[in-house]
């Protein structure tokens, strides 16, 4: 009983210290594209700008055309979440027998339940928080695999790579893109 009370007192003291401690938060990072301000996410030691459109939405009469450039970014926007994945074929695959149920459930739910949008041509940029235009950092460009049938840039967290590069004292910028898949991709 005394031990339980001691634990409760220690937990209460710990919570009081944590709540009273100010968390260091950085302001959301911004960049300017043409005349638009793009607001990203500050996390750990990196800044992220996610889901930035790099082409006009390939919908309507642009559906089966090559991606069309955005004439100008003139409206400020938030780039705090990955853009939607592009439409893709339902994945059909067979898994080896003997896998744990949890593994099978995870694989079937993540691979086969991807909801896409035709307005999916987006780019993601992750940079060290202290990077400036004059930093002259190398850029790692990640184009996910999937045989032009499945995949999404949001599957891979670029902040892991940038944080590791910072830890190794070779900071880099990570860029990933979504691209059209299946028959629409083949048409282009």
UniProtKB/TrEMBL annotation:
PANTHER family associated with the record: CARBOXYLESTERASE
Species for this entry: Rhizopogon vesiculosus
Keyword Signal on entry: yes
Alphabetical list of Pfam families matching this protein: COesterase (PF00135)
Residue ranges annotated for the Carboxylesterase type B domain, each copy included: 28-181
Keywords, comma-separated and alphabetical: Signal
Domain of life: Eukaryota
Protein name: Carboxylesterase type B domain-containing protein
Signal peptide limits: 1-20
Keyword Thylakoid belongs to the record: no
């Amino acid at each position: 009983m005394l031990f339980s009370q001691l634990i409760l007192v220690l937990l209460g003291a710990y919570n009081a210290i944590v709540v009273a401690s100010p968390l260091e938060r950085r302001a959301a990072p911004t960049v300017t594209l043409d005349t638009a301000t793009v607001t990203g996410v500050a996390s750990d030691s990196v800044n992220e700008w996610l889901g930035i459109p790099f082409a006009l939405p390939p919908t309507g009469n642009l559906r089966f055309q090559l991606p069309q450039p955005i004439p100008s970014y003139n409206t400020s926007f938030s780039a705090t979440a990955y853009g939607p994945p592009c439409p893709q074929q339902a994945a059909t695959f067979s898994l080896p027998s003997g896998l744990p149920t949890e593994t099978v459930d995870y694989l079937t739910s993540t691979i086969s339940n991807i909801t896409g949008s035709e307005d999916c041509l987006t780019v993601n940029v992750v940079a060290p928080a202290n990077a400036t235009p004059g930093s002259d950092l190398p850029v790692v460009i990640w184009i996910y695999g999937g045989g032009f049938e499945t995949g999404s840039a949001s599957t891979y967290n670029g902040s892991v790579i940038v944080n590791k590069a910072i830890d190794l004292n070779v900071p880099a910028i990570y860029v990933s893109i979504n691209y059209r898949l299946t028959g629409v991709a083949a048409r282009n």
